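Hey, quick one: can you model this chain's 3D structure?
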Amino acid sequence: MTNTVFTEVKHGSPLYDEVVALRDALLRKPLGMQFTPEQLAAEAAYFHFALLADGKPVACLMLVPHEEGQLQMKQVAVSAELQGSGLGARLTAAAEEWAKDNGYSYMFCHARDTAVPFYERQGYTIDKAPFTEVGIPHRYMYKQL
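Sure thing. Here's the predicted structure for all 145 residues.
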């Protein structure tokens, strides 16, 4: 799929609601979790992005500002039927460009063990010991932008 548009998503907008539904279906429900109103309200301070196909989100992520020049990439999701199509790579590359354009120089994530090979292909490096988050194994990974 090449006909997608990268866009910033405004917190609280109808598009944000669609992105939350995508994240919920792919990342939360399989773990028996659901978003709380408090968690979603806290996301107002984050940057949200999506790849749109025909106006609908098919991939998304959010970036959380940390100390000077650092962003944490979180909640990366690609529609199940499009996984392996390159959309995740296009989404992360576009988010990294946005980050550089906005003065950030370091991106990190807590990658699920199953996603580590994906992030390695995007140039991320494993650092620190494995840890458990939301009940599943993760790795800290980073990239200088």
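One thing worth noting: The chain has a mean pLDDT of 95.
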